[in-house]
Design brief:
By secondary structure, the chain is of the alpha/beta class. The chain contains 9 helices and 6 strands; from the N terminus they run E-H-H-H-H-H-E-H-E-H-H-E-H-E-E. Helix 1 packs across helix 2 and helix 2 packs across helix 3. The longest helix has 17 residues. The protein is globular, with a radius of gyration of 18 Å.
Length: 218
């Protein structure tokens, strides 16, 4: 019997920071020495992922630290005169006041079981975002709490421990096949991929196009 829904936040309930990343990349391109603006995004992502993959346990670093460090590295790599502090604030501001997807509020209003957020973000940022949008989940579990990021299973296990629920008593929904689907499944939790873009669904993956389509799984 499903007793709760675990859900990702950014990309699932609220929009990701893609437009902010684009603005930051443009600033670095205009003040630096990149051949193509796409090179900036690619390098920044690779720098971030390198830091991200080794950030857990005693070596854990917050999302803000990782983003700032990777951005600073990117600015230096492309000999840009951009200010890492000012550009980071653009991203942090988005994290604290992100626009919601249209189906988020109906999902919370109609969901027949409690909804808990399980997110790769710092607690202060998701709390500010929730206060801004007026959504009140039953529980909020972050990478900062668990000192581990999805797709590692520690965050999911942390959420299970705090709710007192067994893996077969929850469903996790999120927009990332790697972080949300594979991460939840590694902890023994049934996962549903939120596929807003109508992409091809891999074999064996449960998928919905909007959040309210999750209800038949409950």
């Amino acid at each position: 019997m499903i007793k709760a829904v675990f859900t990702d936040f950014y990309g699932t309930l609220a929009h990701e920071d893609g437009e902010i990343v684009k603005r930051i990349s443009e600033e670095i391109f205009d003040t630096g020495k990149a051949d193509d603006i796409s090179d900036i995004g690619a390098y920044w992502w690779e720098s971030f992922q390198s830091l991200f993959s080794s950030s857990y346990g005693e070596d854990f670093r917050t999302q803000r630290e990782l983003e700032y460090t990777s951005l600073e590295d990117t600015i230096k790599h492309f000999c840009s005169k951009a200010d890492a502090g000012k550009l980071s604030e653009l991203m942090f501001s988005h994290w604290q006041k992100p626009p919601l997807f249209a189906d988020t509020l109906p999902f919370f209003e109609k969901c027949p079981v409690p909804v808990c957020i399980v997110s790769n973000i710092d607690r202060c940022d998701v709390m500010s975002a929730l206060d801004h949008i007026g959504v009140k989940p039953r529980g909020i579990f972050t990478s900062e709490d668990a000192r581990s990021y999805k797709p590692r299973k520690e965050l999911f296990l942390y959420a299970l421990n705090k709710t007192g629920l067994a893996p077969d008593e929850v469903i996790h929904v999120g927009d990332s096949l790697s972080s949300d689907v594979k991460g939840a499944e590694s902890a023994g939790i049934k996962a549903v991929w939120l596929n807003r873009g109508g992409r091809e669904v891999p074999e064996g993956v449960n998928s919905v196009g909007v959040l309210t389509e999750l209800f038949p799984f409950l």
